[in-house]
């Protein structure tokens, strides 16, 4: 793992929302919230990180969408103070990322939380309604001029175990089609001494 640069929380939240906007599961709800506020989705696709009002809006939007400020649901127990950095991972490090401690991701990975195990089950046809082929366009975007949003992961200081916060479907696609991974994939990584308090760690 190579540290590329420090990152701001505002930068990470913008990436989180952009990833969710592209998600079949979460995108519709986000667009509804933006429409309620009469705000264009460009605020997520092309964030102006030096605009304090924009950053405040995205923070509030993520709270309405996923209880970010309230620290509920996905963010239950998530530390208030996290040091964010942009890091570069080689393919083996990307595929060593762990899913969150959530029922679906535990089941699909046979309890290991490893994307390579989920990919193997999908390829064997063990996951009804999900195919490897539907994931290929997601992985293939890594080689385009408009790649997917960065994965967001967290760890204890020292980074011995990285757990994904946002980007599980993308990570699964990368495990299914690792040939699309670049020599280094940049992601956002947050660390905190009390990260083990997070319910999904």
Layout of helices and strands, plus pairs?
Blueprint: E1 2-6, H1 9-21, H2 27-36, H3 42-45, H4 52-66, E2 83-89, H5 91-95, H6 103-108, H7 115-124, H8 136-140, E3 152-155, E4 163-166, H9 168-176, E5 185-191
Parallel strand pairs: 3-5
Antiparallel strand pairs: 1-2, 2-5, 3-4
Helix pairs in contact: 1-4, 7-9
Segments where pLDDT lies below 50 for 5+ residues?
Answer: none
| Shape category | globular
The helical percent reads 25-40%
Order of helices and strands: EHHHHEHHHHEEHE
Mean pLDDT: 96
The fraction of residues assigned to DSSP E strands is 5-15%
* Number of separate helices: 9
Can you count the beta strands? Answer: 5
Strand order of the largest sheet: 1-2-5-3-4
What gap, in angstroms, lies between the N and C termini? 20 Å
Sheet/helix structural class: alpha+beta
Compute the number of structural domains.
1
Major beta-sheet overview:
5 strands, mixed
Radius of gyration: 16 Å
